[in-house]
């Protein structure tokens, strides 16, 4: 989820204990400050840096991400059925925020152009950092096929929610889609990842599919295969063997039967 607006184990360390020497940082998409090397994960797949001006709370976020990053990477591999590459991550006050609401971004949607990841600090709640990291990592695993369109954005947010126990619950978009009149982004894919209505439609639609027994890994791999020009209707047809033309009608019928309407990104409880 490019330019996103997510409890890892905390192992307290003193700031003075952090190694100052380490691999040189990559060129970050936007961060221009000092990149303090923290550590590389045990697998060697994730190298974490932090903006030293964040002090102890930011350093704690960084240490927690090191401790959690291999779990996230392995879970991401399982979702996409592939083995991801190595990445570097910088934690800083993205957009000036230190509660995770600044989101995350990266430069591209594969492990070559997008392996320098920026994540917003979230003081006292490192699960949000892990979730934001997964949102970007999932896009790297899309191989450039879905990143930047509404289907890929919904998928990346669902990946982040699943690996973090929904640590980014305040990033919801499905209720916005419902309140704005439930536009049909099932038969049409929106060529942007910045529209809450199209992302929200995707979130609710994937919730509905999961509530019918289609796992997120199965959905993720089918969406990647469809690519950026694929639609949620085609995903529905591929998974259910039912006509794509029936996807929107059946989805709308299901939405109308929700007892409380669309109040979250998982209105059908498919991710539980």
Structure overview:
- β1 and β2 (46-50) form a beta hairpin.
- α2 crosses α3 (150-164) and α6 (216-226) packs across α7.
- With 272 residues, this protein is an alpha/beta fold.
- The protein has helices at residues 55-80, 126-140, 150-164, 174-179, 196-211, 216-226, 232-240, 247-256; strands at residues 36-40, 46-50, 87-92, 104-106, 116-120.
- Strands 1-2-3-5-4 form a five-stranded mixed beta sheet, with helices on one face.
Question: Care to give the gist of this entry?
Answer:
The protein is an alpha/beta fold. It has 2 domains: 15-143, Zincin-like; 145-272, no CATH class. The chain has 8 helices and 5 strands, in the order ββαβββααααααα.
Please describe the structure with a list of short key phrases separated by commas or semicolons.
single chain, 272 residues, alpha/beta, Zincin-like, 2 domains, 5-stranded mixed sheet, 8 helices, 5 strands, 40% helix
Chain-wise SSE layout:
Blueprint lengths: L35 E5 L5 E5 L4 H26 L6 E6 L11 E3 L9 E5 L5 H15 L9 H15 L9 H6 L16 H16 L4 H11 L5 H9 L6 H10 L16
Helix pairs in contact: 1-2, 2-3, 3-5, 3-6, 6-7
Question: Could you tell me the number of beta strands?
Answer: 5
Largest sheet: 5 strands, mixed
Strand content: 5-15%
Number of helices: 8
Structural class: alpha/beta
Quote the average pLDDT: 92
CATH topology of the largest domain: Zincin-like
Give the CATH level 1 class of the largest domain.
Alpha Beta
Helix content: 25-40%
Query: What's the SSE pattern?
Result: EEHEEEHHHHHHH
The N- and C-terminal alpha carbons lie at a distance of: 22 Å
Estimate nothing, just give the exact number of structural domains.
2
The low-confidence parts are 1-19
From the spread of the alpha carbons, the general shape counts as elongated
**CATH-defined architecture of the largest domain:** 2-Layer Sandwich
Radius of gyration: 18 Å
Strand order of the largest sheet: 1-2-3-5-4
């Amino acid at each position: 989820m490019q330019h996103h607006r997510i409890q890892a184990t905390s192992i307290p360390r003193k700031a003075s204990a952090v190694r100052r020497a380490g691999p040189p940082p990559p060129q970050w998409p936007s961060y221009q400050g000092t990149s303090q090397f923290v550590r590389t994960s045990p697998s060697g797949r994730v190298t974490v840096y932090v903006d030293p001006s964040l002090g102890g709370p930011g350093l704690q976020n960084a240490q927690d991400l090191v401790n959690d990053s291999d779990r996230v990477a392995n879970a991401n591999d399982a979702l996409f059925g592939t083995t991801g590459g190595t990445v570097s991550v910088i934690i800083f006050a993205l957009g000036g925020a230190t509660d995770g609401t600044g989101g995350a971004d990266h430069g591209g949607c594969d492990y070559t152009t997008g392996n320098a990841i920026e994540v917003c600090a979230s003081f006292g709640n490192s699960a949000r950092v892990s979730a934001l990291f997964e949102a970007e990592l999932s896009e790297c695993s899309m191989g450039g096929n879905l990143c930047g369109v509404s289907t890929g954005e919904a998928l990346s947010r669902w990946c982040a929610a699943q690996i973090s126990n929904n640590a980014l619950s305040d990033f919801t978009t499905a209720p916005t889609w419902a309140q704005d009149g439930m536009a049909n982004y099932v038969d049409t894919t929106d060529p942007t990842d910045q529209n809450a209505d199209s992302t929200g439609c995707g979130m609710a639609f994937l919730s509905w599919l999961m509530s019918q027994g289609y796992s997120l890994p199965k959905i993720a791999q089918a969406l990647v295969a469809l690519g950026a020009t694929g639609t949620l209707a085609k995903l529905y047809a591929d998974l259910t063997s039912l006509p794509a033309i029936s996807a929107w009608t059946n989805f709308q019928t299901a939405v109308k039967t929700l007892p409380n309407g669309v109040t979250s990104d998982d209105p059908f409880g498919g991710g539980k």
